[in-house]
Amino acid sequence: MSIVGGLDIHRHQVTFDLADTVTGEAWRGQVRPADREHVRAWLAAFAGRGEVHLGMEGCTGWRYVAEEVTAAGFTAHVGDPAEIAARRGPKRRAKTDRADARLQRELLAKGQFPACFVPPPAVLDWRQRLESYHDLREQHTAWVQRIHAVLFHQGAPACADLGTAAGMARLPELCGQHLTRAGQDQVAHALAQLALAQEQMAAARRTLTAIAAHVTGARALSGQLYGVGPLTALAMTCWLGGAGRFSSARKAVRFAGLDITVYSSAGKRAPGHLSRQGPPVLRWCAYEAGKAHARPGAPGHGYYAAVKDNIDGKRAALSQARRLIRQACHILDGLGDDAFAPC
Fold this sequence. Notes:
The protein is of the alpha/beta class and 343 residues long.
């Protein structure tokens, strides 16, 4: 390689540290503002200088920078932020953007850059759609909880079945009898937001279901794993698929954030908590699929019931979710990169 460099990406600037491995010439500075137009103009200055390899952390903003680097004819290397931080070692001086860019350049030049998996652009788009759907679900839950809070705060009888038509039909009567005018307005606002969220969720779900129906990995998972529907299958394909994605199924469970923590600083946290370090969408989908095995006819009901009797239903669903992640990992590993292919 001729030129190697590191990029530290932030919302307002991209700090760069580049060096020519042949001549020793160096370039250091910042690209401001940090948008496609200015990054593209900066990359144009290195056209015709041979091979250019640029490393960057896989944090927010990496996608458009990597796309512009590739479009310019150079090679983009996206690294795992945690692995890069580990290679920094003990902090002996102030951590700055320039120091981060220099570290990435040095790791890339030594062949020690911890590259992470970069899915195809279509998969990145699917991930964004899934994340938006998950956000809508969380907002829907939050507005339902707000209604419960208003009812309880003003002493109204509990209305636990707001998710049903009967519960929603009973709500106006409760509001009129027990809530003040301000409380009624709060509930009205929450209901309006719920209606909007439900409409958007329905549209998003239709789009995601149509996508999952034409993705090889999603079709395979939904057909072979009980409780895994189109959305869950698509989420598992997006975050677990790809040739050589994981060297073991246990690492896939850890990636999903469903592994159990065994160490806590100063003993302030009891053991047994989930790490919750992976994609929230994947963890949520796997948990919902795990709960499906509570049905007596489910193939994993025996295992689910045993864990539930020994601990509780939540732990049983989490245990089943880990099993589904491991099974999905093996299925997708057999498909390789074809998991993302249309079918």
